Amino acid sequence: MSILKPLSAALMVAALAACAAPQSASKPEPLNNEDWYQVRSETQVILFDDLKVFQDYLATGKAPNMRTLEEKDPVGGQEVILALTAEDQGKALDKIAAYRFFKVAQVPAHPFYGEVRQDDAVYVFKRYGDMQDMIKLGEPIFRYTDIGGGPDGKTVTYGLQKEEGRPESTIAQFKKNHSL
Known about the structure:
Helices cover 29% and strands 26% of the residues. The chain is an alpha/beta fold. It has two domains: 32-109, no CATH class; 114-180, no CATH class. An eight-stranded mixed β-sheet has the order 3-4-2-1-5-6-8-7, with helices on both faces. Strand 1 and strand 2 form a beta hairpin. The longest helix is centred in the N-terminal third of the chain and has 17 residues, at 4-20. The protein is globular and about 40 Å long. The termini are far apart. 28% of the residues are buried. Residues 13-22 have low confidence and may be disordered.
């Protein structure tokens, strides 16, 4: 028994010293979980996690890198494509926010901003869950519609929660994102 006390004390001192030593652990990778964008057609779902890439795609139909996945969209069976920044093109799928959102494996930030373009319609969300529900159902359950409030006079539909009023901050973010 007499040897256990000094040994225990030595182990405790070593453990405390290890905790107090400066850690050289690498800085965690940022989540990139504040926004997510989609362009949906009958044949493709293009996913974006970068506003600039999304804006450029809307203007030109091109992105720095388009990566086709080997899986189909679970809702409509369309081909799934990631539109990536040049920096993201070599990353593993589990390191790409747009893919993690698609797989429902990304915790969204608060506040969150999401946008879906589908059939010449624009849908905007401040909650990831509302965005996912709309994708599954085809329309937001509760909505605020701004007729002619989008680019080129398009109608913009904002996903809401029950009894939620006009989404002023989400409208402001949409207008800022699209220079309206």
